[in-house]
Design brief:
- The longest helix has 24 residues.
- The protein is globular.
- It contains four helices and no strands.
- It has two domains: 39 residues; 46 residues, no CATH class.
- The relative contact order is 0.09.
- The protein is mainly α.
Amino acid sequence: MNHDFHGRLAQTTKNDRIVDLVDSLLLACARLDYMLMDLYPTKWIDHSEILSSLKAHDRGAARQAMSRHIQLTQEQMSKIFSGEGLSLPNTPQKEEPPRVTALSEN
């Protein structure tokens, strides 16, 4: 869905360079995108605000919605890659190795 949305949006520009750029970026990020959406399904930003603004031909609202989408996506990606406040689901916690202590001879 993400690829379709961004690809179609790029096509509306009727600018081959933008279409090619978006397509190559989406292809390069496809595996990561699917993996992250599976791991953090509730953490991603919905496209509905952008789509409804475009359908209403409201350029200003569409521009603001896209700006918010980009900003929130950048913030979310930053949190994921820095590990800030996010943990992988079902990831076993590392156990502390047993401590070796010197045995005293009495």
